[in-house]
Give the backbone structure.
Amino acid sequence: MNYRLRTKKGFTLIEILAAIAVVGLGIIPVMNTLPEGLKALRKTEHLTRDVMLAQQKMDELRGQILGTNASYGYSKSGGYGGSGTFTGFSGYRYSVTDDQGSDIRELTVDVWFDDNGNGTLDTGEDSVTLDTKIAER
């Protein structure tokens, strides 16, 4: 009898099943990290927009204070505190505090994305705070 070894090319069923098991087990940790990555991306996006909106609000307030005097000096009248929302940026809120100092006025702007929509800054909602001082000329 003449026995010849067959040299077939290809994979056996056991090799294919082992490869599927290895790939399947490797995908599980990767799939677990995707939600955390998306959460971090969303947080970064909100904080970046918070900074932009806080700077915009601070510039608006400085313009109002300095622009009330014809010589662009310091306006001692009126407070600029309050809170509200931004047009075109749904969910973003701000709060402004004004110490109404006589010679140096201190303004603080807090901006945050209101996750739960209740209108207040809650624990777990990240915020950006900008402070500035405006002196009388």
User: Anything to note?
Assistant: The longest strand covers residues 89-98. The longest helix spans residues 13-67.
